[in-house]
Amino acid sequence: EKGGYKHYMAKEIAQQPTVVGEVLEAYVSGDQITMDMGGINFADVDRLSIVACGTAYYAGLVAKYWFEHYARLPVDIDVASEFRYREAPFAPKTIGLFVSQSGETADTLAALRYSAGKVDKIVALINVPESSIARESDVAVEIHAGVEVSVASTKAFTCQLTSFAVMALKAGHDRGHLDDAGLAKHLSELRQLPGLMSHALTIDAATKAIASKLAEARDVLFLGRGQMFPLALEGALKLKEISYIHAEGYASGELKHGPIALVDKVTPTVVMAPHDGLFDKTVSNMQEVMARGGRVVLVSDARAAEEAGDGVWQTLAMPEAPELIQPILYAIPAQLLAYHTAIAKGTDVDQPRNLAKSVTVE
Ligand code: F6R
Asked: Any idea which residues are catalytic in this one (predicted)?
């Protein structure tokens, strides 16, 4: 049931502070991680091979940044439909990690079967414990998002990310890159998520105003750098899925290697840029867009918005947040921009054309 919301998507966006809180409840207790991974100790692992499709793939892409940064653990990541056929050599001490909300995505399941026997362990990050992908894995880690009805994935994405954050911190601790104090610090950052997500949901009205303008665009660019790059991809995917506006996500630094040719006076560029160590570089990418008459929608916190200076077309003000949780928090503006743009265009938000909730053909 929609419980007073106009669409399942709106309800599922609003549920995120609660369900993310439930993920933390399931996997963190005080300063300790309680996530049971069937006895896996990441000190004995040399490589992770993450495989998924669509939004689940973007969650894996954020996780790659985290595992490499917090645990110094190398990560390969592929979309499932490519992974199976490129005949990648498997290195010893590799864990195969398959991410799927439905647990029934045909390509992801086929990639899992292909990897069985070739990797040390098959781990699945899933939302449906009785699904095929959960059943065929050695270790199934639940994301605790609850039933997701809307075709466009929202709360499953943030629950995948939160579960991955815990897993990356466990890996960092197992591998000796995070000591007890470091782990405790990052766990307390994760605990800020439900509160900060509730705060981020209050940008709903501001998002609606910007979305009414995005609805007139033919193309929209999304930019992000570092761990925010996958959020640019996710923002673009969500927008095309439900509003049918052509959108592309790029790593900010790739702008001048091609996509800047798309920038003109009517093409909005959404920049997902919390204040972080790379912010100055992002500002210069934004200035390149503005110098060509492009309209920049800056999604950022107050401090960064001030540093960005004049010339920004629209700003969405997010709460300041520790770096670790920024990609999780910024899923909310990505989702709300797509949602309100779709409403402004009058499309079928929960059942977009040509799409199915579970893709069971390859
Ligand atoms: C996007 C979306 C899809 C799914 C993809 C994988 O909003 O919902 O891109 O993320 O089809 O689905 P699962 O996670 O069920 O394997």
From this structure: 357
